[in-house]
Amino acid sequence: VKAQGRNNFQFFDPEMQSTAQERMELEKGLHLALENNEFELWYQPQVNDADQIIGAEALLRWRHPQNGVIYPGDFIGIAEESGQIVEIGNWVLKRAINQLSDWHQQGLPESFNRLAVNISPLQFMQVDFVDRLVEMLNEKNIPGRLVELEITENMLLNNFSIASNKMKLLKQRGISFAIDDFGTGYSSLRYLRDLPLDILKIDRSFVSGLRASSELAAIVEVIIATADRLDLTVIAEGVETLNERSALMELGCHCFQGYLFSKPMIPDVFYAKLQAPSHS
Ligand code: C2E
Ligand code: CA
Ligand code: CA
Ligand code: CA
């Protein structure tokens, strides 16, 4: 578990391997967090080049009773290793769909297409993943087209055909798929060809410094051109400056997510922003 530098609290000394003791305490803490309902989802808008909110990404937060808000970088890794990510991930899906149901009833603006949820490999590979998700949607009467699942390239490494089958089943329910952090994992262009993907998210590491590096610009240009040819929507992540936004637009990217537009927000604040006439 790496320190993220922005928390006033860290589970582990970043310089040291976590001890077995520390891991056990964190696992216990995660167990209690589920039991005591300490997890929250925050929402970060995704915008188009007219500054309309076209979607949002749900991001997990842990409101620790003593230590304040803990960010996923400090616990997702351990939760994946311990297997607790399955239960946490199920909570995330349920919370996201319940929230979507509330907003759907209160009214979502025309421009809002979908809510994106991050899915861990272990969670996606559970045999009941598809049924469980479909059941949640049915229960709340939510159209699948409002839900997007963000998966990473690494998930596909060992389980390509299983993953691809699950994706096809969910796509039949209208659910869309984004490939997250594109270009940072064990990428294969084959994934883009062979999987039923809808969205490609360009990782922040490609976005920052785009103006300063013509090599970076060349790579991003190829990614965007390829995505266009394959009819994938491109969303650039971690856009922090107007300069980055304009560089991306020149390369043909028209959807953005990042601090330039907004940090992740608690649900009510996000919904208020969604209702506001102008988002800029
Ligand atoms: P990610 O999926 O790549 O999510 C984007 C991360 O970048 C988020 O960090 C977001 O707050 C941050 N971010 C957004 N805009 C900017 C920006 O302009 N600049 C910078 N520096 N950062 C920006 P967060 O929320 O701390 O999440 C970190 C990672 O934890 C996520 O990366 C994702 O891999 C994982 N994660 C978050 N929520 C969940 C979840 O519900 N389930 C699973 N399995 N993983 C999650
Ligand atoms: Ca993501
Ligand atoms: Ca990402
Ligand atoms: Ca990332």
From TrEMBL:
The residues covered by the EAL domain are 23-278
Q: Which residues form a coiled coil?
A: none
Q: Which domain of life is it from?
A: Bacteria
Name listed for the protein in its UniProt record: Signal transduction protein
Protein source organism: Amphritea japonica ATCC BAA-1530
Portion of the full sequence shown: 524 to 803 of 806
